[in-house]
Automatic annotation (TrEMBL):
<feature type="binding site">
    <location>
        <position position="47"/>
    </location>
    <ligand>
        <name>FAD</name>
    </ligand>
</feature>
<dbReference type="InterPro" id="IPR008333">
    <property type="entry name" value="Cbr1-like_FAD-bd_dom"/>
</dbReference>
<dbReference type="InterPro" id="IPR017938">
    <property type="entry name" value="Riboflavin_synthase-like_b-brl"/>
</dbReference>
<feature type="binding site">
    <location>
        <position position="32"/>
    </location>
    <ligand>
        <name>FAD</name>
    </ligand>
</feature>
<dbReference type="GO" id="GO:0016491">
    <property type="term" value="F:oxidoreductase activity"/>
</dbReference>
<dbReference type="Pfam" id="PF00970">
    <property type="entry name" value="FAD_binding_6"/>
</dbReference>
<dbReference type="GO" id="GO:0016020">
    <property type="term" value="C:membrane"/>
</dbReference>
<feature type="binding site">
    <location>
        <position position="49"/>
    </location>
    <ligand>
        <name>FAD</name>
    </ligand>
</feature>
<protein>
    <submittedName>
        <fullName>Nitrate reductase</fullName>
    </submittedName>
</protein>
<keyword id="KW-0472">Membrane</keyword>
<dbReference type="InterPro" id="IPR001433">
    <property type="entry name" value="OxRdtase_FAD/NAD-bd"/>
</dbReference>
<keyword id="KW-0274">FAD</keyword>
<dbReference type="InterPro" id="IPR001834">
    <property type="entry name" value="CBR-like"/>
</dbReference>
<dbReference type="GO" id="GO:0005783">
    <property type="term" value="C:endoplasmic reticulum"/>
</dbReference>
<feature type="domain" description="Oxidoreductase FAD/NAD(P)-binding">
    <location>
        <begin position="106"/>
        <end position="157"/>
    </location>
</feature>
<dbReference type="InterPro" id="IPR039261">
    <property type="entry name" value="FNR_nucleotide-bd"/>
</dbReference>
<feature type="domain" description="Flavoprotein pyridine nucleotide cytochrome reductase-like FAD-binding">
    <location>
        <begin position="23"/>
        <end position="86"/>
    </location>
</feature>
Length: 162
């Protein structure tokens, strides 16, 4: 899964990549938020939960298509959309306006977890960033996306992460 033209991998914080899937020769367009930022990686890392239980209707059309795609299939990346960027040290830009925060209170679950991971990873990577984070997740324990990664971030970065 690579973009058809060279461009910077990752994404500004909380900005979505729009994926155009042509695997089944039909156009399905969905927005996904990479968990890595453009500053972290030369790759685009996505979290896509695949349901392999008896009720396949739990999965969306793009998710099922990604699951069925063979290795080397092309999924086209189309630009970034979004209006929030975390610049570090509590500094943010939202809808073109700079602002500052001492703490993030994040309420999220399911597909809302990847954008929170993006911010948490950025704060954890900068030892001088003292921004506090409180993440409230409304999922059942067995259904939390990236639970191990979230637990590791919380354990390694206390007291700022709760």
């Amino acid at each position: 899964m690579i973009p058809p033209t060279p461009q910077e991998a990752g994404a500004p914080f909380l900005q979505k990549d729009t994926w155009n899937n042509t695997v089944l020769r039909e156009q399905i367009v969905r927005a996904y938020i990479p968990i890595a930022t453009r500053y972290e990686s030369d790759e685009v890392d996505l979290v896509v939960k695949i349901y392999h239980d008896k009720d396949a209707s739990n999965s969306g059309e793009m998710t099922r298509t990604i699951d069925l795609a063979s290795m080397g299939s092309l999924i086209e990346l189309k630009g970034l959309i979004g209006n929030f960027e975390y610049k570090g040290q509590g500094n943010c830009n939202t809808t073109g306006r700079d602002c500052y925060t001492k703490r993030f209170i994040m309420i999220s679950g399911g597909s809302g977890i990847p954008p929170m991971i993006q911010i948490l990873r950025a704060i954890a990577a900068d030892v001088s960033d003292l921004t506090e984070c409180l993440l409230l997740s409304g999922n059942r324990c067995e259904d939390i996306l990236c639970k191990i990664q979230l637990d590791t971030l919380a354990k390694e970065n206390t007291p700022g992460f709760v």
